[in-house]
Amino acid sequence: MQFGYFDDARKEYVITTPATPYPWINYLGSKDFFSLISNTGGGYSFYKDAKLRRITRFRYNNVPLDLGGGRYYYINDGKEVWSPGYAPVKKELERYECRHGMGYTKITGEKNHIETEITFFVPLDFNGEVHKVVIKNTGNSNKNITLFSFIEWCLWNALDDQTNFQRNLNTGEVEIEGSVIYHKTEYKERRDHYAFFSVNAPTAGFDSDRESFLGTYNGFQNPDAVLEGKSKNSVADGWSPIASHSLELSLDPGETREYVFILGYVENDLEDKWKLKNVINKTKAYRMMEEFSTAEKADGALKKLADYWEDLLSGYTLVSRDEKLNRMVNIWNQYQCMVTFNLSRSASYFESGIGRGMGFRDSNQDLLGFLHQVPDRARERIIDLASTQLEDGGAYHQYQPLTKRGNDEVGGNFNDDPLWLILAVAAYVKETGDCGILNVSTPYDNDESKAAPLADHLKRAFDHVIHNLGPHGLPLIGRADWNDCLNLNCFSLEPGESFQTTTSKDGRVAESVMIAGMFVYIGKEYAALMKKTGNETEGLRAEKEVHEMEEIIMKYGYDGEWFLRAYDDFGRKVGSRECKEGRIFIESQGLCIMGGLGLSDGKAVNALDAVEERLGTKYGLVLNNPAFTKYYVEYGEISTYPEGYKENAGIFCHNNAWIMCAEAVVGRGDKAFDYYTRIAPAYTEEYSEIHRMEPYVYSQMIAGKDAKRFGEAKNSWLTGTASWNFVAITQYILGIKPDYDGILIDPAIPKEWDTYQVTRKFRGDIYRITVNNPNHVSKGIERMSVDGKEIVSAVIPFAGDGRVHEVIVTMG
Ligand code: BGC
Ligand code: IFM
Q1: Where do the CATH 1.50.10.10 domains begin and end in the chain?
Q2: Where is the Glycosyl hydrolase 94 catalytic domain positioned along the sequence (predicted)?
Q3: Which ligand does the CA of 720 lie closest to?
């Protein structure tokens, strides 16, 4: 069952009922000011940091869940009260529509012949959210209505705001000036910042004190002021400051009115504060209001936003006969990749914005999905990440976005972390040709006195694995590898002792076949990068190390039909036929085969057959099987989850992509694409009532076959799933891979496909690549031509002339 439809021409998902299976959200903002907005206007805004600069309040765990705060509008027409975006009044509308587009959301609601259309967006280079409100009288008699706006301020620090009431209920301060309500709480402190909510028209009244506006015992659904049709003109003094305007309108039949509301944030230079004692400097706010003083100006900014997205998305465009595939590749998957770039894992309807920093492994993997869109910003991100690396090549697991410093709240010792940096840098250099990045002097642990060229960071990341090998010669897993919940060393801790070293007391240590597979896959990338950039000796050394690891994996890491997952701290196999539960895991199958293991002797294909048989379901591939049915202290958190959820046999959409890539590597394009369609949102749209999350973006996890709620997704939006699925479809299946000297063409597609065309922007040139499949094969290229000339290699040589080049590929 669907709750809307895709409007591809406008790059929108159109939701046709407010009763979606879960709030379906969108993100506004592209640089510093960000907002989350649900299909009924719920959500919140923040500046740069969702914890420390929270602008509006939102209650996670609220009941009902999407009435925890938002930007709300109300209409009182003298007979009835409703919200044109449905929430919070929840009175049935005669017509409702929500269009989530690229960086904007437009909600339209019609009732009693009043049609209200509100477009919410954060203009480019603007620290605020703009609401363009258009109200029309669609009836044939005159209408006198009162329109109310509403937002609730958060007292800046989102965690403190939800916990420190004894203080915070005394600090709230506001100022009213004409149609502008300023939120000034804490303006006297060191930080000179404030927020405001304005409208470009005279108001009939305002409210800034929540209790006065709502009434002590009312909720957002039935505010006293709205029910009475009149603002209270309250000025907040402590308690909970809000901002609400009321506008009285008289509309003739067919008449339309347009308003622009701005929810803005201003940060002044510190010296202003000292110059202007005890008053806020409103200069910037005035400028922001002037920038959007008319609806036409808002339209102009919307157009610029559309152009911005058009440009970002134009780096890779596909024309195929599958419209669902086209919309994933051309619009929504790329959009989600940019959102993960901007937000990392900070703020969603599943991430509270007060939890985690930026993950080292997460951010490196996210890069793979957005670097073709914003290569310069990818470069900066790489240097930020590498600057937090430790001298021994290891990494802090996270860093703080505001300070860009590593933090050890979560601890380190996730032994997969450093390798992802190599993968990101190799991908960056292939995309941009910018080898110079390897020479950039980059600190260790943010300490400039310990700076070394980026190439040295990669070497240490590579060597970190070699320096941390276990009894079988496989990499030590440390605290956990990519699978955060596979905590194989934990059992040996004494109560109260935290995990410090990778060596347990009895001298035995857990090892990860997944990291071994990564070492082979990413180690080959490292070797190639070194050789390409003139460091032949290092390239050869890396190849030798990789080769040794390959042998060790095939000796100790393959279990007859598939790759093992690990050895636990007792040296026992994990993910083996010998295990009762957790007999096979997905991660090592994907990464070992992506590294090229088992290709010549059929072992890779056997492993992939085992994946299909044991992990395959109609909704995607589960992470492991059989699920753990009880807690195993020697496996850790993974076995604490109920069967079928999260890392315990849930469908982790992130590593489903690795299997797609592995299937492509062995040449089984049909299987690769089949797995792609099982989890790609455009294909899950038709059973949205089961899946429940947004049908335009990936979720981190879908409940697996052992779960009571099989097929139900959770944790949409902020997940490495976005970038890996983009890599799987664009590079491995459609087979357009950036390489050092050009673009490598290596498709692995369903045999029945006849043709498709990809337009790929690459270092300033444009390559229009038509792939024809007259022989109906999955893999293999018979011939290829560039601008009419046959070429012998599968790599389109980089021209560097800024022109459009026609490439014709014939498979066979
Ligand atoms: C979750 C993981 C997550 C980790 C983050 C665990 O509880 O299951 O999915 O990566 O927390 O720290
Ligand atoms: O690899 C992790 C990721 O870093 C955070 N989310 C869950 C994944 C699997 O545990």
Answers
A1: 337-486
A2: 308-735
A3: 2
Task: Return the bridge partners of 129, or none.
Answer: 263
The answer to whether the predicted template modeling score (pTM) of the entire model surpasses 0.85 is yes
Measured distance CA(260)–CA(108) in Å, rounded? 16
Q: How many CB atoms lie within 10 A of CB 433?
A: 18
Residues of the chain with CATH 2.60.420.10: 736-811
CATH number of 736-811: 2.60.420.10
List ligand 1's pocket residues with C-beta within 6 A: 484-485, 646-647
Residues of the chain with CATH 2.70.98.40: 4-310
Which ligand minimizes its atom distance to the CA of 638? 1
CATH of 4-310, one of 3.40.1190.10, 3.40.1190.20, 2.70.98.40, 3.65.10.10: 2.70.98.40
647 Cβ below 6 A of ligand 2: yes
**Which residues, 6+ apart, have CB-to-CB distance to 306 below 8 Å?**
102
Ligand 1: which atom is nearest the Cα of residue 701? 9
Report how far residue 503's alpha carbon sits from residue 470's, in angstroms, rounded to the nearest whole number. 9
Six-digit token pair at 524?
């080959």
Q: How far is CA 710 from the centre of its chain?
A: 24
**Using alpha carbons only, how large is the chain's radius of gyration in Å?**
28
CATH of domain 337-486: 1.50.10.10
Mutate to test the pocket of ligand 1, among 354, 484, 719 (most ligand atoms within 8 A of CB): 484
169 C-beta neighbours (distance < 10 Å), count: 12
Catalytic residue positions, numbered: 484
Which tens digits make up the pLDDT trace of 350-391? 999 998 778 999 999 999 999 999 999 999 999 999 999 999
Q: Any bridge partners for residue 713, and if so which?
A: 702
76 strand-pairing partners: 81, 146
Pick from 363, 483, 624, 640 the residue to mutate for probing ligand 2's pocket: most ligand atoms within 8 Å of its CB. Answer: 483
Q: Summarize pLDDT for 408-417 with one digit per residue, the tens.
A: 777 778 999 9
